[in-house]
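Write out the 3D structure for:
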Amino acid sequence: MKKVSAKNYFGLLYLLPLILSVIVLKDRSASIFRQLYIQLRYGFTLSVILISSIVLVTFQIKKNQYRNLLLFTVILLFFSMSLAGVWASGRSEPTMINGLIPIVDGENYYNDALRWLNGGYFSAYSAKRPIFVAFLTTLAKISGQSIQVMQALIMFLMAIACFLVVKKISGKLNSFGTTLFLLLIFFYARQYIGCFLTETIGLILGLSGFALLITSKDDMDSWSFYLSIFLITLALIARAGTFFLLPFLVLWIYKVQISKKQRWKELILAFSSILFAFFLNELMVLHFGSGENIPFSNFAYILYGLARGGSGWSQIMTDRPELFMLDENQLAREIWALAQQLIRQNPQNFVSGMFRQYVYLIDFSYQTKSVFSFMNSETVPVFITTQCLLYLASMIGLFSLVKRERAFTSLMLFSLAGILISVPFVPVQDTLYMRAYAATIPFIIFIPCLGVDFITKKISSPLPSDEIRQSIGFYSFITVILLIIFIIPFFIHGKRMPSIVNELDCKENQEDILFVMNKGSSIRVRPENELFLDWAPDFHFSRFYKNIRTYSFSDFVDPLSELDAPFELRVGINLKNDEDIYIVFPGGNFIDKSGIYELCATKQPYSDSPWVRELAKLYVVQDYQLLKTQ
């Protein structure tokens, strides 16, 4: 009988970090770990020390298989603890209420995923970003439409992408440079853990494309090189950003292949990879959208802000609020026309607005705007020290390119040139912590890592890698991601619910609603006199009130703030008319049974402010009953 080597069973050990991740996410104990979770999500100094020291020690392990297993474990635990920190703190963030319920952008994407699963189509808002919403739709199906499970799945995929990329670049950078890369990626990524935002898929695809580009740059006859171009393009389409990177990559290919007779072959293949990504996106816009849609129509807002001298994307809301009575496509056309008119009338304002973005990018006195602003510490002195060190490492990294391989040097310089030329059209002032740069942030943070690698090259060298094993895991992961985005969503389009006779007799001032209840998708607000540890989905009213007041949408916030606990908050769609809605269930009889419910609810009126245009309508339930279990 043939003996089975222990190596054949080694892969089973990768189940251990998965088990530990589940334990972390299910932990609700009042222990020291709770503070650790919150620190890894929101803290700085302790997180930097902890992550750096553990990862550096991990890289000292000589055997590849043991080092990789431990590295995967620590990365997955860092990401899992960050998500647990969101749930434990219950903090409200720009697109997430109390660490759980999506709002604004996240709410639109989540509800469009539900709409697709229930036989509908993406709204005009989401149809212009079909890659992420298709991705989210698959995760919604897998999770049973549970928000918490979807948050965990996205976190898990981000952690795997980070692990695979770190493994790839550890053969290019020494342990110190690779540790800094992981540290910077984690601090950038953690702000999106738990959020339903395009930055998540942009980062996953961007990391994968970057790692593949760096490792396959010397073999342009390999299909993996063109796959890297395709993935980077997909990342930029999913999370619109520094598009000028793409033509500069094509120019780089021309430069390094200029002495070869068949250089046009490489150029055509690269250009075809870019076009194919755009072609797939256009097909998705047509298939998932419910009518005419304008891809990247939100750029009209950016262009208008630049034309007004760099006033920001939201300036149009102040200048012309009456336009926001139009539908999405008409609105985009009007803003385009106004922006072009302003540019013709005052071109100097447009130029000023463009160049102002470079000031925001470089001047770290803008603590939420500059290039490394996501390394945001608890105190100003630590922040300034950190920024100075990163800028110094970046300058050394740029200098070190002179000492490195010519093809690699030119690749980094051309990539940076493409990113820098894009800056005026991806205004730094419009977002926080380099949000719009998710797809190409790996190129940016690689520069200071090169500097650290150069400084420490005498005490540490790049790690030997098992290229075959790495390739199997890497390409398997990319295949799964592409299946989630491009294949599975086509097979999970639901069917419209047949007409149901109203069982409830709703009063005249109430609306009849059909609503799907899912587990792990609500916030439960309880009275102050109940003894329990605040942790999603359960919070005391004081914690909920404090966090809901971070939003400026008084139309939405005031009614919730005035409710008496206990009550439950949910988000979803009205299956009768596809309307995006928030639902409040007063009273302590929280709903645990998943299914389709009929509701009688009163609608809370909103103002005509453009700021609440994309906000789901708020309803307070007066009566309900279960129609169908799921």
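The CA atoms of residues 206 and 439 lie 5 Å apart.
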